[in-house]
């Protein structure tokens, strides 16, 4: 499967914990700005704006572990193929405000048979600036590291991204959180000839908090438009769901529907 479940997992984990966790231990961020915090009143705080289908440079809080299942249909976007699932187990450590945050994940590709293929993904993230109600992050990452099974047929992939989060004050006193992310990856663009070949290219995405627990997003590669929703589950701490469609116009003839279930702790 050419979608890495760790991307879905991290997006849901970020949606669960929110932006306020980025300024850990109450430390001031660069430039003497106040720590990034959620609004005191829950009614005035909307969900963290996750972005579906595009890499975000925003890191999960230090010490966050996550487990995630993804269900994708059809497998590889091939219409005659069955559906399938992936599993990801990961951990984030380090502080992107005072240093660098790192994330490592083990991705099991395909659940039937389970464990016969997979790889490791790695990423580093750093806060570039913060002030008022905005913050900017940069990250670099590598995927398909130490592959096994059929994953060994693919090359190691690389990606770099910059993400900016801005909270806009609305007339009713609610702050509307928006995330903009853009970057370039060695396997970010699917060929539009229907063969499903992944090559280098740029991407861009925008996510927005819609309710206290729900965010929506749209993202673009050089050949695709992707749309998705991310939902945190208040009754189950650290749990979240994501639902999205890769290539909503089916320009690459590899359209997929993806459902993710994640638990961060």
Tell me what the structure shows.
Keywords: Signal. This is Outer membrane protein beta-barrel domain-containing protein. The protein is mainly β and 265 residues long. The protein has one domain: Porin, CATH 2.40.160.40. The longest helix is centred in the N-terminal third of the chain and has 13 residues. The protein is globular and about 50 Å long. The relative contact order is 0.21.
How would you briefly describe this protein structure?
Keywords: Signal. The chain is mainly β and 265 residues long.
What descriptive keywords fit this protein?
single chain, 265 residues, mainly beta, Porin, 49% strand, disordered N terminus, Outer membrane protein beta-barrel domain-containing protein, signal
Specify the CATH homologous superfamily.
monomeric porin ompg
Order of helices and strands: HEEEEEEEEEEEE
| Continuous helix count | 1
Widest beta sheet: strand line-up: 1-2-3-4-5-6-7-8-9-10-11-12
Q: According to CATH, what is the topology?
A: Porin
Low-confidence stretches: 1-6, 15-43
- Beta-strand residue percentage: over 45%
How many domain modules?
A: 1
CATH class value: Mainly Beta
Radius of gyration (CA) equals: 18 Å
Structural class: mainly beta
How many individual β-strands?
12
Helical content, roughly? under 10%
Q: Look at the structure and give the mean pLDDT.
A: 85
CATH architecture: Beta Barrel
**End-to-end distance, in Å?**
26 Å
Largest sheet: 12 strands, antiparallel, barrel
Note the overall shape.
Answer: globular
